[in-house]
Structure formats: structure tokens, C-alpha cells
Amino acid sequence: MAAPAESAPPASRLSGTLGVGSIVFMVIAAAAPLTVIAGTIPLGVGAGNGAAFPATFVLCAAVLLLFAVGFCAMSPHVPDAGAFFTYIRHGLGRPLGLGAAFLALATYTAVQAAVYGYIGAAIDELVASLGGPSVPWWVWTLAVVAIVGVLGYRHIELSSRVLGVLLLAEIAIVLVLDVVVVAGGGGPEGLSTALFDPVQIVSGEVGIAIMFAIASFIGFEATAVFRDEARDPQRTIPRATYLALVVVGVFYAVSTWAIVSAWGDVAAVAESGANPATFLLTTFENWLGPAGGLIVTILLVTSLFAAILAFHNVAARYWYALGGHGAFPGAVARTHARHGSPHVASLTQTILAAALVIVFAVAGLDPVAQVFAWMAGTATLGILLLMVLTCVAVLAFFARSRVDRRVWHTRIAPALGLVGLLVCLALTIRNFPTLIGGSTGLALAIGAVLVVVFVAGVVVALVRRPTEPLTATTPGEVREDTPRENA
């Protein structure tokens, strides 16, 4: 009798020499720093906890660092790429692991779709402002889909170099603003001190502030997805994870503080609440002149492009891992003979993205108010669910295997991270209609879709069992001579 498709290994494993810097570039690019500065900060300041919003980034970064402690401690014991779902599979079992894999793929596809909507509108606005023609947003977006598809088909090092250049440019322009504002002593009220005031930190709608802040870190966990392409994964992945979190957290907190200081506490809340779409552009024009406004408008587009490319690479590697795991046809797990890339998986993600853009266009959805808001909200909820499951998996894995007896790394930090993430998840669910800019009914529908996707993965795992299941020398420790699922 022929073996089930699940037992078929991929044609070859991915390989590469990515260092800490390259992986950090891709991860921070996925976080889209300038996009966060332009889109999240006005919402966090205007609708959240006001001028104290910078402190919210610090709080969320602290929670995610606690999560990262257990995540990185378990990394040497999870020899496969695949990030969340491989951790969950090793800690909580194969059915929940495959359910998480389906959920992760849907989540990264959603966030990529969100940014595809945004970039189409942003390019059209930029071209029109420069005197060019105004065309439907989806025309620009499909052109971007094609470019991303070409880069994703090639070796990962090419994407890394492209992302590195774009990322340095967008961070540089924000840092210029930060330096100018701080050197000038801030706006009419001087440099803001609200972020140091506990009363102001918990004032207003702090739940909404935390929800928007935690959404700004989406993508940092993707370091583990590039495990097979890292130069020294046991060192590179943990270092890249910690470095990405610290860099992003500090950048967001400092830049938000500088922007609030540029206006003054009261004026910043008023302006961001009244004109969230133009808040960043007006800030740059006020402090760096019209040229600064034009540069930041251009770099906003490149920031969106960098995020799309980064999330494309992550999603393609989920397709690749699931192909090797047998959940999808084995062809998806093939690597290109010349480029060493998961080219079939990349093409699959490109086709899916193009199909989603066409559906959104035919449905007549607004690219920002609907496509971006709905898909970004979906991704935020999905990522939080995955991180909660991963925390539980880390705790379960070390409690069962005893392969690492460091109490802080294997028990205390993951437990504290789990508590923090559960609070963030509860606040996100409570404020989810606000996050997606829609009704409670739409929020329930999106939540139901995520549940269905997760259950579908569990069902596939139960129906399609491997012919050679994992064995272990100790509970949770995979034997090196045992054929293992490439997932």
C-alpha cells in the first residue's frame, strides 16, 4: 500500500548563510516602522491613553521579551523551521500544532493582504500629488504583487538586501525628526513627560492603546521561520529575536515621545484625534518643511513594500513547511535548484495574494477603511492567539522533557509572558470592533473564520496520520536517527 502523502519529505531543505543582521532587517521590515508611526501612533494617542502612549510600547515590549525568553530557550530543541506551529507541535502535540500552522498561514496572509490594500492607495495618492494619473488602487497593488513574486522566487539573500536598504531609509527619516525635535526642546510645551506619569499611562482608553501597541510588533516572532537559512541557528535565532524586539520597542517609544513633544501633550491628542490620516505628514512638514513631507510620503510607500516582501517570505515558508508535513501537496515543499528558494511555495502565496486583491476590488471594498482595517485586525487577533498557544507549549514542553532546568527561562518568564499575553488578548477581543473599524457582527464573523481555520488544521492532522511518527529518547526530545516530519 502506498504511503500517505504526509510521509513524503520535501525535495531538499532550505539553506543559507543569513546572519543576525539580515534576519533582524527582515523582521523589523515586517513590523513596518514608518507605517506604524504613520498609522498606529495617531490612533494610540488620539483614541488611547493620550500623550502617555509611548509608555505603552515599553509595556508591550516587556511582555513580548518575557515571551521571547521561553521561545528562545526552546529553540535549540525544535530543529525545524516553522516558528509557532513547530513549537506548539512539540509542546502540545501534532493536532494542535497543525491547527496552529493553518492559523499562522491565514494570519500572515491576512496581514499581507492588509498592507496590499494600504500600498495601492498610498501609491495612487503619491503619484497624483506629483501630477501623475489617478488609477484604481488595485492596479498599483497588482503591480506590487508581481514585483514581490519575483523577489520571493529568488534566493532569500536578495530579499534581505532589498529590505535592508528600504528599512535604513525609513528609520533614518524618522530619526532625523526625532533629533530635530529633541534638539529644539520640543514644541510650545517643551519635551513631554506624560510617559513617566503612571496616572496618565492608565488614563483614557488604555485597553485600546495596548491593543494598537501590541499590533505594532507583528512579525518579530518570524525569526524562527528562517532557521534553516540562518548561518548558526542556535545562536542566530535567539539573538535576532531579542535584538528585533529591543530595537523596535525603543524606536517606537522614542519616536512617539518625540512626535508628541513636537505638538505638546494637549495639541497632540487634539490633532491626532481630529486628523489621524495626516498627523504624521503635518508633523514632518512643520519641523522639516515641504521637502521632509514629500520624503516621508515616498518612504511610507517603500515601508509598506518592505513589509509586504517580509510577510511574503514568512508565508511562503509556512507553505513550504506544510508541504513537507503532508498537509499540502509535496510539490509545495520543493526548493529551486539554482536559487535555493521555496519557489513553488512562493508562487502559491503570490497567486493567493493576487486572488484576494481581485476579490477585494470586485467587491468594491475601500483599500484602507475596509481592506487594511479588517485584515490587520484579523492578523492581530491571530498572532495573539498563536503566541498564547506557544507560551503554553513552552511551559508544557519543559515540564515534560526536563531538557533545560533553568527556572527563569523555562517556567517563570514564560508564565509571566503568558499572563501578559492573555491580558492583551482579552483587551483585543473586547475592543476588536474598534480595531477593525466595523460592527460587532463583523468582529464575530472574523473570529469565527479564525476558529474554523484552526479546527481545519486539527482535523487534517487527525485524518492524515504519518506512517513514521516521531519517537524520542526522553519526552519531547527528538532522536537524531529518527526520520522526522519536516515541519
TrEMBL record:
<feature type="domain" description="Amino acid permease/ SLC12A">
    <location>
        <begin position="23"/>
        <end position="458"/>
    </location>
</feature>
<keyword id="KW-1133">Transmembrane helix</keyword>
<feature type="transmembrane region" description="Helical">
    <location>
        <begin position="344"/>
        <end position="365"/>
    </location>
</feature>
<feature type="transmembrane region" description="Helical">
    <location>
        <begin position="441"/>
        <end position="463"/>
    </location>
</feature>
<feature type="transmembrane region" description="Helical">
    <location>
        <begin position="287"/>
        <end position="311"/>
    </location>
</feature>
<dbReference type="InterPro" id="IPR004841">
    <property type="entry name" value="AA-permease/SLC12A_dom"/>
</dbReference>
<protein>
    <submittedName>
        <fullName>APC family permease</fullName>
    </submittedName>
</protein>
<feature type="transmembrane region" description="Helical">
    <location>
        <begin position="23"/>
        <end position="45"/>
    </location>
</feature>
<feature type="transmembrane region" description="Helical">
    <location>
        <begin position="135"/>
        <end position="153"/>
    </location>
</feature>
<feature type="transmembrane region" description="Helical">
    <location>
        <begin position="371"/>
        <end position="399"/>
    </location>
</feature>
<feature type="transmembrane region" description="Helical">
    <location>
        <begin position="165"/>
        <end position="186"/>
    </location>
</feature>
<feature type="transmembrane region" description="Helical">
    <location>
        <begin position="240"/>
        <end position="260"/>
    </location>
</feature>
<keyword id="KW-0812">Transmembrane</keyword>
<feature type="transmembrane region" description="Helical">
    <location>
        <begin position="51"/>
        <end position="75"/>
    </location>
</feature>
<dbReference type="Pfam" id="PF00324">
    <property type="entry name" value="AA_permease"/>
</dbReference>
<feature type="transmembrane region" description="Helical">
    <location>
        <begin position="206"/>
        <end position="228"/>
    </location>
</feature>
<dbReference type="InterPro" id="IPR050367">
    <property type="entry name" value="APC_superfamily"/>
</dbReference>
<feature type="transmembrane region" description="Helical">
    <location>
        <begin position="96"/>
        <end position="123"/>
    </location>
</feature>
<keyword id="KW-0472">Membrane</keyword>
<feature type="transmembrane region" description="Helical">
    <location>
        <begin position="411"/>
        <end position="429"/>
    </location>
</feature>
